[in-house]
C-alpha cells in the first residue's frame, strides 16, 4: 500500500500520543521515522512503532524523558538518555554539541543509555546543515546480539552504525555516509520478512552458521540466526571499533553478557562535531569539496543504469520520489502498526481513513 507522508505522519503521531508521549515528543519521533521512510530507509521508519509500543508497555522505554547532562568539560559533553526516545534525546544532544562548537571549534559528545536513536544519518544531517562536519559511532546493548564476528557463527554485536557528514555547498548536497557495520540492518530483514521476500545475496547465517539469503532465520525459530559483518576482516575490525568507541567512551557499556539485557533497543553514541573554519576557510573547503566530487563523478560508469552517486544522494532521490508517489508499506507491516494502535485504544477507523 502507498500512503502519503502527511497522512502517515498524522496517524503515527496519534499512535505515539496514545502510547504516552507528549505532543512535542510525538512530533519529533514521528518526523524522524517518516523522514527515514521518505529517504528509503524503511528499516528505521514507522515500522519501528509496534516495537516502541511494546517497549513502553514493558516499562523498558520511557516516554517524555529529555536528554540529561552528566558532564560539561568545555569541548566535551557527556549525556544520558535515561531510556527515553532516542529520536528526541539524540536531537537534543546534537543541538547542544552544535551550539558548543560555536565557541570551542570542536566538540566530543557522548550519549549513553538512550532507546533507539533511529537513523543515525539524521544527526549527521543536523551538523551538515549547520555548516559542520560530524563523525558518529553507535553501539547497541540491552538486547541479545544479532551480528556475528568475522569468521564466527554466533552473534556478538549489534549492527553498530557509523556516520560521517560534511556540509553542502551551492553546487552539491551534503555528504552523509551512514551505514550499519553489518551487511544489512536488522530492520531491513524485518521489512523483507514481512513482505515475504529474500535477499539477492547470502547476508545472514542460520542458527547452525550456514549462509542464507532468507530473512526468516532472524524472525522464526527458537534460536535466532546472525547477520554478517561488512567487508570481511576489515568490517570485523570496524564493528568492534564502533562497539568500543560508543560503548566505552560513553560509559553506557558494551553488549558483552555481564551487562543487563532487558530486551529494548538501547544505544550509546560517541560523536565528534567539528567546525571546519577553525582550520581552513569555508570558501576553500567548499571549492575543494566541489572539485573532489566532480573528479569522482568523472569516472566512467560501465553500466549507465547505475551512475556514480555520492553518499546522501540516494536518500535525496528517494525523498523526491516518495513525496510524489507515497510511502510503500507491506500489508503485514501496516497490520502490525494498526494492531499496536488498537492495543492502545485507538479506533480502527482512524487507520482505515488513510489505508
UniProtKB/TrEMBL annotation:
InterPro entries: Mal/L-sulf/L-lact_DH-like_ah, Mal/L-sulf/L-lact_DH-like_NADP, Mal/L-sulfo/L-lacto_DH-like_sf, Malate/L-lactate_DH-like. The keyword Oxidoreductase applies. It holds the Pfam family Ldh_2. Keywords: Oxidoreductase. Gene3D superfamilies: 1.10.1530.10, Hypothetical oxidoreductase yiak, domain 2 (3.30.1370.60). GO terms for molecular function: oxidoreductase activity. It comes from the Bacteria. PANTHER family: MALATE DEHYDROGENASE (PTHR11091:SF0), OXIDOREDUCTASE-RELATED (PTHR11091). Belongs to the LDH2/MDH2 oxidoreductase family. This is Malate/lactate/ureidoglycolate dehydrogenase. It comes from Pectobacterium polonicum.
Amino acid at each position: 500500500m502507498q500512503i502519503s507522508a502527511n497522512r502517515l505522519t498524522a496517524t503515527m503521531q496519534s499512535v505515539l500520543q496514545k502510547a504516552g508521549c507528549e505532543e512535542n515528543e510525538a512530533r519529533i519521533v514521528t518526523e524522524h521515522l517518516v523522514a527515514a521512510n521518505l529517504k528509503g530507509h524503511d528499516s528505521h521508519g514507522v515500522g519501528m512503532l509496534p516495537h516502541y509500543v511494546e517497549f513502553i508497555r514493558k516499562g523498558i522505554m520511557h516516554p517524555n524523558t529529555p536528554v540529561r547532562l552528566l558532564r560539561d568539560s568545555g569541548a566535551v559533553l557527556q549525556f544520558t538518555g535515561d531510556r527515553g526516545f532516542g529520536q528526541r534525546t539524540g536531537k537534543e544532544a546534537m543541538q547542544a554539541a552544535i551550539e558548543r562548537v560555536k565557541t570551542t571549534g570542536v566538540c566530543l559528545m557522548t550519549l549513553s543509555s538512550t532507546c533507539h536513536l533511529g537513523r543515525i544519518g539524521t544527526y549527521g544531517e543536523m551538523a551538515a546543515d549547520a555548516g559542520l562536519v560530524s563523525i558518529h559511532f553507535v553501539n547497541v546493548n540491552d538486547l541479545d546480539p544479532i551480528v556475528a564476528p568475522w569468521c564466527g557463527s554466533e552473534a556478538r554485536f549489534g549492527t553498530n552504525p557509523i556516520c560521517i557528514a560534511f556540509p553542502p555547498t551551492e553546487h552539491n548536497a551534503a555528504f552523509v555516509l551512514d551505514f550499519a557495520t553489518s551487511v544489512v540492518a536488522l530492520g531491513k530483514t524485518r521489512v523483507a520478512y514481512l513482505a515475504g521476500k529474500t535477499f539477492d545475496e547470502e547476508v545472514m547465517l542460520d542458527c547452525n552458521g550456514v549462509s542464507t539469503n532468507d530473512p526468516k532465520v532472524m524472525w522464526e525459530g527458537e534460536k535466532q540466526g546472525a547477520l554478517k559483518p561488512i567487508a570481511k576482516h576489515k568490517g570485523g575490525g570496524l564493528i568492534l571499533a564502533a562497539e568500543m568507541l560508543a560503548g566505552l567512551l560513553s560509559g553506557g557499556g558494551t553488549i558483552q553478557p555481564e551487562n543487563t539485557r532487558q530486551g529494548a533497543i538501547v544505544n550509546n553514541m560517541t560523536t565528534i562535531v567539528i567546525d571546519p573554519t577553525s582550520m581552513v576557510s569555508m570558501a576553500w573547503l567548499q571549492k575543494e569539496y566541489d572539485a573532489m566530487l566532480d573528479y569522482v563523478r568523472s569516472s566512467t560508469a560501465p553500466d549507465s543504469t547505475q551512475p556514480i552517486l555520492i553518499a546522501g544522494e540516494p536518500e535525496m532521490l528517494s525523498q523526491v520520489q516518495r513525496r510524489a508517489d507515497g510511502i510503500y508499506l507491506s500489508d503485514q507491516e501496516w497490520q502490525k502498526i494498526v494492531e499496536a494502535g488498537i492495543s492502545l485504544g485507538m479506533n480502527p477507523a482512524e487507520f482505515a481513513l488513510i489505508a
